[in-house]
Amino acid sequence: MNEIKGRIHSIETFGSVDGPGVRFLIFLKGCALRCKYCHNPDTWDPESTDLRTADELLDQAERYRSYWGEEGGITVSGGEPLLQMEFLIDLFTKAKQRGMNTCIDTALQPFTREEKWLEQFQKLMEVTDLLLVDIKHIDPQIHKALTGMSNENILDGIRYLDEIQKPIWIRHVLVDGYTNDEKWLKETGAFIDTLSNVKKTEVLPYHSMGVVKYEKLGMDYPLKDVEPPSDEDVRRAKEILGQL
Predict the structure, then answer these.
(1) Number of domain units in the chain
(2) Which class for 193: exposed (0-12), middle (13-18), buried (19 or more C-beta within 10 A)?
């Protein structure tokens, strides 16, 4: 019987901002969203020449375990990790057998309550300790303009995680002209206030550090004229979303 292999983009051994404590980060390939501010466009293509089994990755992670402290563990990001859910279930099941904390960084774009998909997602949630969930934009039309897809299933996925009381961190990227309007921030904050499973809310200031990747890929960077938000804009957004 062939082992399940994940399509890997890259590994980061000492992550400090993608979940609690120090994290071993696994970036997977493939994403259906086309966020204008994405700094990892090289993860969009689902194909990869780097194919690894769960045990290969966990054996590597074990080498850094002494640095994790009480809160650290492994975080799977992307791309969109939920596009490789069979591999994630195998990875996290084996991680829990090793006593590792497990976290997924996701936009929840594949989420659906369709029975077959949801059954697999429920299995994954049984071995997942935390999810870092992006709210790209609260308005479905602006979300589509920003990412190429609407957000109805994403917001429903967040509600589902609240229903099963799975702990999440909410992340919201502050982008001038898209997400930093007070009206949308208040609507986003109001949505977050309906949830009882949110352990942390993070405002992430937009940056253009991914431009070089677009250049290497021969792609135009869509937000080349957008400046990072001011410190005051970030402070205001944090206050509205309850981070302060």
Answers:
(1) 1
(2) exposed
Rounded Cα gap, residues 188 and 167, in angstroms: 18
Cβ atoms of 84 and 124 closer than 8 Å? no
Torsion angles phi and psi, residue 134, rounded to 5 = -85, 130
Closest C-alpha among 176, 199, 194, 188 to residue 239: 188
pLDDT recorded at residue 235? 96
Domain that holds residue 43: 5-171
The domain that contains 142 carries what CATH number? Answer: 3.20.20.70
Say how far apart CA 237 and CA 200 lie, in whole Å: 14
Pairing of strands 168-174, 130-134: parallel
Predicted model pTM: 0.95
- Report the C-alpha gap between 44 and 80 in whole angstroms: 8
